[in-house]
Amino acid sequence: MQRLLARIMPVAVLSPTIILTTIFIYGFIVFSVILSFTGSRMFPRFNFVGFDQYTRLFANPRWEVAVENMLIFGILYILLSTLIGLTLAILLDQKIRNEGVLRTIYLYPMAISFIVTGVIWQWILNPGLGIQTFMRNLGFENFTFDWLVQNDLAIYCVVIAGVWQVSGYIMALFLAGLRGINTDIVNAAKIDGAKTWQTYRYVILPELRPMFLTAFVVQAHLAIKSYDLVVALTKGGPGFATELPSTFMYSTTFTRNEMGLGAASAVIMLCTIAAVVVPYLYSEIRNERRSA
Amino acid sequence: EGVEVLHWWTSGGEAAAVQVLKDSLEAEGYSWEDMAVAGGGGDAARTTLRARVVAGDPPTAAQLLGMQVTEWAQEGFLGNLNSVADAGGWNDVVPAAIQQFGTYEGEWVAAPVNVHRPNWLWMNREVFESNNLDVPTTWEEFNAVAEQLQDLGIIPLAHGGQPWQDATIFDDVVLGIGGPDFYQAAIIDLDEDALSSDTMVAVFDQMRTIRGFVDDNMSGRDWNLASAMVVRGEAAMQLMGDWAKGEFIAAGLTPGDEIMCATAPGTEGAFLFNTDFFAMFDVDAGDAEAQQALAAGILDPGFQEAFNLVKGSIPARTDVSPDNFDACGQQSISDMAAAAEAGTLMGSMAHGHAQPSAIQGAMVDTVTQHFNSDMSSADAVEALVTAVNAAR
Amino acid sequence: MSVAALDDTPPSGSEQRAEVDWGARFSRIAVYGVLIFAALVFLVPLMSMIFTSLKDMDEIRGGNLLAPPSDITISAWLKAWNEACISVQCDGLAPYFVNSLMIVVPAVAISVALGAINGYVLTMWRFPGADWVFGALLFGCFIPFQIVLIPMARMLGIMGIAGSIPGVVFVHVVYGIGFTTLFFRNYYASVPKELVKAASVDGAGFWGTWWHILMPISWPIVTVAVIWQFTGVWNDFLFGVSFSSGNNQPVTVALNNLVNTSTGVKEYNVDMAGAMISAFPTLFVYIVAGRFFLRGLMSGAVKG
Amino acid sequence: MTTLAVQDIKKSFGPTEVLKDIDMEIGTGDFLVLVGPSGCGKSTLLNIIAGLENQTSGQVVIAGRDVSNLQPKERDIAMVFQSYALYPSMTVERNIGFSLEMAGVAKATRTERIKEVAELLKITDLLNRRPSQLSGGQRQRVAMGRALVREPQVFLFDEPLSNLDAKLRVDMRVEIKKLHQRLGATIVYVTHDQIEAMTMATKIAVMKGGIIQQFGAPKDIYDRPSNTFVATFMGSPAMNLLKGTIKKDGAAWVVDHGTEKVAVPRHVDVSGLREGQEVLVGIRPEAVHLASEVAHDSRIDQGWEFDRSIDVTEPTGPATLALFEVDGTEFHASLSGDADVQAGQSYRFKADLSKALLFDALSEQRIAHVDETNQPQETQAA
Amino acid sequence: MTTLAVQDIKKSFGPTEVLKDIDMEIGTGDFLVLVGPSGCGKSTLLNIIAGLENQTSGQVVIAGRDVSNLQPKERDIAMVFQSYALYPSMTVERNIGFSLEMAGVAKATRTERIKEVAELLKITDLLNRRPSQLSGGQRQRVAMGRALVREPQVFLFDEPLSNLDAKLRVDMRVEIKKLHQRLGATIVYVTHDQIEAMTMATKIAVMKGGIIQQFGAPKDIYDRPSNTFVATFMGSPAMNLLKGTIKKDGAAWVVDHGTEKVAVPRHVDVSGLREGQEVLVGIRPEAVHLASEVAHDSRIDQGWEFDRSIDVTEPTGPATLALFEVDGTEFHASLSGDADVQAGQSYRFKADLSKALLFDALSEQRIAHVDETNQPQETQAA
Ligand SMILES: Nc1ncnc2c1ncn2[C@@H]1O[C@H](COP(=O)(O)OP(=O)(O)OP(=O)(O)O)[C@@H](O)[C@H]1O
Ligand SMILES: Nc1ncnc2c1ncn2[C@@H]1O[C@H](COP(=O)(O)OP(=O)(O)OP(=O)(O)O)[C@@H](O)[C@H]1O
Ligand SMILES: [Mg+2]
Ligand SMILES: [Mg+2]
Predict the structure, then answer these.
(1) In this predicted structure, what is the pLDDT of residue D380?
(2) Chains that touch E (3 or more CB pairs under 8 A)
(3) Distance between CA D236 and CA C2 in Å, rounded?
(4) Which residues of A touch D71 (CB under 8 A)?
(5) Are C8 and A98 in contact (CB under 8 A)?
(6) Residue E4 phi, psi (nearest 5)
């Protein structure tokens, strides 16, 4: 009996999670896939329409913009916040005085709801109110920073605000990773003549591999779901130049009462994520096994 | 027993207005459970509403905008208010154009609270007078005035680059250039000929012209910041609904005095409206009584006056005395009565009183895309037709 | 090294740390330079918020939104805290804090605890298919909330916890476990397996090993997970607004109600003060949790 | 009574076969020492006995109970890990007392026991430190303490003294032996130290490449290694092996290794020998003396005297090692510590053949002794 | 030339004073072995030399350059860590070649060197594994490989062979010595193995409690330990110390330890002795023989014969240890391996006094020998 318990314990412990995940994530995904083949509007209706919703989706110029923005936003957001977060974490790990204060400063953007900080960012990035005016008042008459009002550049403003918000958290994540590394191997690298950057590049960062995976999942998740960010900062504008799949999904499903179309966009979104994430997950897990 | 009311009037004057309703209901001995969800002009509240309904726990009443009442009624979630309506004589005092949204298949399902008029032009009197400018009554005049202002270094039109603000102007331009019949055909009936007509091209031309009168930093600006520009005299005019009055009053100015109000260029004689309804959900018998009381209370003339004085809009029934309203309000009331007579009282597309959400969204998309890019008018017309068809 | 005894000053030079040769004073200055510069950049929006919250509305309407206040007033803070009218209630944000706390505490506790246990099982008690379970959990993190809203509402209705605080807690737990599991599993991946072996020889069972051996070295990652969950749940709007009802709405919904008005007058000073007030608990958590970020836990754990 | 039986254990890590059919039994109170070259599978075997690794096939039986499928904590064992595996977050005191804590032993008793063990290991003043604040040897002693504080059926020690100085090691050895006697526990002990192996074991198992080469009492292993591997593995410097051919020199058998002839030791059973057979003569370095020193030693009744010029000398304290060449192979002699020899000079040596061994050069198996021919020779594990 | 000088090094961890004024110098090509009980500060000292820990005060000078404030990589050292400190995510090959990679050595050369080192360490077939897939001894060899692949000014080895079997250890010892000779590098080597210490060192420093007790050539340390600590620390089993009082027995000085009298060894300078002085006579176990065995050994010109009943015997292979009691203290004798002694029986022993030492019981310092009285005695490090 006891032996049996010990054997099934791991699975037993995981089972609540497995059950919840199966129903509330995968069940819902299946549900959405089904919906995407229906003409559902305000509520789920099972009047199947084949691939109509997908056809409509791809004919929709807003979706096109949303996908394009997703690429720009997703890539830049992940890259920049990783870079900044990692840099800050590494620098903070150099026996810094007042580390706690700095850490909290980097983290605070996460704390404040974007419902409000979005307004601030609007002001800061608005050429008539923020940085541009500030610089011009300082005497740089030709200073121009008007991305927010440029159709094709506004998305970069969303990137800036997004990176500002999340970098601190990524920093915390990497800092936790760094703090878990055995100091002996760092010493060994010093003896082996590695320069600082080499120590990080070859010894410490490889140890942080799992943390990179964690950071990536967190960032990708935030990028895909950055709804507040866009709504608060640009409301999707100018025009719908800063539309993202998340805002598209939301407005089609809830504002415009096109649940079928919304579901179709969600399904496409999930497939895209799967195309990026699954190979990454696979290679990470495999790599782990190899070195285990 | 009592009511649970879902609405998005959470702050400032709006909240105060709700308080009026709550007080009047509580005076009748019913409790009021407040379920307020602000944001996105009711977007968030509607999402919540759907979650509540799906969970099998709908509120007693929910604030909805015109076309949405119809959409909810179609789904079969709304209750029947006919007895209250008959008792209150709603059919007689509520203009037909508004009744059309409050009823579904001949039965009352929602009680109208107010009437907003989106097609106002607000102007800074000092700017106009010191520069000897006249209030424009057509789009040509508007263009001329705007050019003069531009030469003077004053921003002609204060605007916030958000899709609904763009669409508000679009409504005005369609109505102003095409006239009420064209508006009816193109915007309300979605007549394809009208949608793709030369008039529509001209409308987009005018939109492009207007874009030239707006400062470059308009993107994403909230409407109240645009109003503040008019207050400060940085900008001369704003095309905005009558809710802008609240912002002017808060700045210490009097609408109709320091801030002049006029109907949007070319829309004289017509009246675009948007109305907030409280849609009544099918509820248990226990709560039904309170629900009926709520509906009756909403249409009560005393309440209608008190509420709309606070809210800045005008009553949804025509028999309320205009005396206590400000100049612009009084003009609104008389204009509405006239328009109702003339059959030019029409729902605003930008504010959800012309098309179901999907089509409205598609139209707004095209408008805002055109306004924020260098799309040609012809292309815009084509895009409009395509988008509308795709959303049908 | 006792965790409790640590304060925020980093260990003195005599401690062994992973600090690498930033020997020269110059690079030391450069490090501080970069860190402080970054801190200033990060602080700009906060400054602007503080400035605005200390102005009165006339100054905001009339002046530069980013400029410091000419005369300072804290009335906006008082108003946001307990005077502002949010719809028909004029008690400010204060009453909603309780709701948020009642949501956030169990939601964070449960999801972090579950995540820690899951991470533990997935690394130390591997069973066939463990990687698949983990992969599936991870992928689940990407589910768009838009598609879960309606079915979740239905499920909550069926379970009878719709419109209640337990319902909101439940939703946050469901969509939080993926992340907390990820955090812990990837942190535990680098913990030497020998520790768990030693514990099992010492007679520690499944739970004993987790509690006595792994948890004490998990502080940095607990911090990370708590920060993530706390921030996510505290700042959540969508679930809070969809699955709570009138009198148990979280503070974000109240803040949103305070800030958002479609046709009314905006009071930016109150908005900013409200935003900062509602962020205090999160900031508090950051500061408290930050104490567990110090080094010295794993070093010297094993010989090999 | 058999306390611990390891039956047909096999273990592979992926394609790497680490243990190949390990089979042995020890009784209650036995002290089994596992020796073998680095990487031969000793730690893996301990892990399998402890239940920390799953064997690919085979059973582990403890006190008559098949524990193959039991959890480590159900097997009633204590273990010292080669890598220590101290709990980084716990103080030394809690590290040591952890198993008692888990067993629900009362706080007072625990403190008492921890104190005893700490005294024994001389780490009393370290009890409040954490592992990261200890030196290597101190960590190792804490690791020992974790096992010693318990009273299990079986103790598993994986090189528990490797990082201790000789003095401490002697003390620890004594303590472990005392513990062994006091508890009568069964002990499996991995060590690389020959003295440890010889002085502590009741049984030694010599492993190589996942196979047990010989299993027996220490004296047997040392004096009667079953093959050249065991012979050269035990003892340092290793036993010298001289290659030669069996010849008949009158009635006597001799091994002709080219330059000289060495008599076949008297205790070797010559019945199986044939002329021309290739053999290896095994002579331990400590059996080689300076002829001058043992000139009067009557006990060396069969010796082999030869002259060689020393290549290298190494004084180790108690002994002086001399290295020279015999027939092209290195030959070690362990002379007395005060032997006054110098490299480059020639000396006369005398090897005591009474302990010399003879191996078949082909099979590398030892050729049996006279007293063994009746009973079957003990080679592989029982 | 002095390659490595450690000057007035002090080190504290918080309140714990670990090194107390360490001061020593070694020249190019010197092989310094650090020995001392567990926790005496050996690893700490190595870490300070390497620049991995900051000394509390004092300087480290390498090749005439004060490196106290330099980074480890600027000090041109290689180190084997007691805890191995292998890079977990790298293969064995990359672990070994990492320092070369950092130094920008070309790929081909690197592979070549790694291969050589791997062969030497017998880990060629493990090159593609990761540390977690290795046995303890294999890990230790990889750790060695990381140092051996380089050619620095100074090598620091922290118990590099503790987890290897005797045979491998002998091989490694030889390789390290070869490396030492080939590169002429300076080596600092921590070990607990006396044979390693005695055979490899050109200089030995015996530490205790953060203080160097004696610094000198191996033979000096062994034969002329400056105090009882050094005397008992080096050598296993430890030197026997008999407490007694100086007496004059006619012209001869003797030590009276109650039951018997032992002559003061002839090489001890008696000029400082006074009657009634409390002393300790140090006799190494290997200097004690069965009287019967050495009856004819003419070299033992000054002996002490006594009868004792043996309490415990321990055969270690090459030797048999006998434990008995002299005046209430334990006394070890290391008899020849084939000595046929049994516990419980009484034997006549003869201790060779030619190597015996005399210590003052109070100061525990050795009483000088005749040949030392002219020159100052070498005790502390230079
Ligand atoms: N971080 C620390 N805090 C306090 N004391 C420490 C710390 N690190 C080491 N020590 C102490 O310093 C002393 C010297 O340690 P060191 O590692 O140098 O010993 P060692 O001579 O190498 O011993 P061993 O032979 O056991 O490896 C030990 O007593 C140890 O307990
Ligand atoms: N995870 C693994 N994957 C592949 N091979 C492994 C793994 N773990 C151990 N081995 C191999 O198994 C063999 C036996 O390892 P084990 O640790 O039992 O050796 P050992 O006898 O204890 O050696 P040592 O004396 O060096 O500690 C070694 O050759 C090792 O390389
Ligand atoms: Mg091992
Ligand atoms: Mg050490």
Answers:
(1) 43
(2) A, C, D
(3) 46
(4) 3, 6
(5) yes
(6) -130, 120
Instruction: Enumerate the residues of chain A whose CB falls inside 8 A of the CB of residue C48.
Output: 120, 123-124
B377-391 vs B357-371: helix axis angle to the nearest 10? 160
CB-nearest partner of B48 from C88, C156, C241: C241
Q: Cβ of D128 under 8 Å from any chain C Cβ?
A: no
pLDDT in tens, B342-378: 889 999 999 988 888 889 988 998 999 899 888 999 9
Q: Which residue, by CA, sits nearest to atom 14 of ligand 1? A: E41
Rounded Cα distance between B70 and B169, Å, is: 25
Q: And the tokens for E57?
A: 């005060």
End-to-end CA distance of chain C: 21
* Whole-Å CA distances, B189 to B267, B289, B351, B389, E202: 19, 38, 16, 13, 105
User: Are residues C54 and C85 both part of a single domain?
Assistant: no
Q: Looking at per-residue confidence, does A183 or C11 come out higher?
A: A183
DSSP state of C10: P
Question: C12 and C47, same structural domain?
Answer: yes
User: Coil, helix or strand for B384?
Assistant: helix
Q: Are D255 and D245 in contact (CB under 8 A)?
A: yes
Show residues of chain D in contact with C198, CB under 8 Å.
79, 81, 85-87, 146
Q: Show the domains of chain A with their CATH numbers.
A: 61-291 (1.10.3720.10)
Please compute the mean of the pLDDT values over residues C84-92 and round it to a whole number: 75
Q: What are phi and psi of A8, to 5 degrees?
A: -90, -5
Dihedral of the CA atoms E270, E274, E279, E281 (nearest 10)?
30
Positions in chain A short of pLDDT 50 = 1-2
Could you give phi then psi for residue E361, rounded to 5 degrees?
-70, -30
> C144 and C293 share a domain?
yes
Q: What is the pLDDT of residue E283?
A: 93
D316: closest CA of chain C, how far (Å): 29
The pLDDT-based confidence of C63 (bands split at 50, 70, 90) is low
Task: Please indicate, yes or no, whether residues C64 and C187 belong to a single structural domain of this protein.
Answer: no
- Closest-CA residue, ligand 1 atom 8, reads D133
pLDDT digit string (tens) for D152-161?
989 999 999 9
Say if residue C43 is in the same domain as residue C161. no
C-alpha dihedral (A189, A195, A201, A203), degrees to nearest 10: 0
- By C-alpha distance, which of C231, C137, C227, C142 is closest to C186? C137
Q: Is B134 exposed, middle or buried (0-12, 13-18, 19+ CB in 10 A)?
A: exposed
Look at residue B374 and give its three-state secondary structure: coil
For position E77, what pLDDT does the model report? 92
Under 8 Å between Cβ of C86 and C257: yes
Q: What is the pLDDT of residues E79-128, one digit of tens each?
A: 999 989 999 889 999 999 999 999 999 999 999 999 999 999 999 999 99
User: Cβ(B336)–Cβ(B95) under 8 Å?
Assistant: yes
B83 touches chain C (CB under 8 A): no
Same domain, C45 and C134: no
Are C18 and C119 part of one and the same domain?
Answer: no
Atom 3 of ligand 1, residue of closest alpha carbon: D133
Please give the distance of CA A227 from its chain centroid, rounded to a whole number.
11
Of D158, D192, D299, the CB nearest to E166: D192
Read off the pLDDT of residues B98-134 as tens digits, 9 standing for 90 and up. Answer: 998 989 988 899 999 989 999 999 999 999 999 989 9
Lowest mean pLDDT among A63-72, A82-91, D297-306, E208-217: D297-306
Task: List all residues whose CB is within 6 A of at least one atom of ligand 2.
Answer: D 13, 16, 18, 36, 38-44, 82; E 133-138, 163
Range of the domain at C27: 3-73
SS3 content of chain C, % helix, strand, coil (to 5): 70, 0, 30
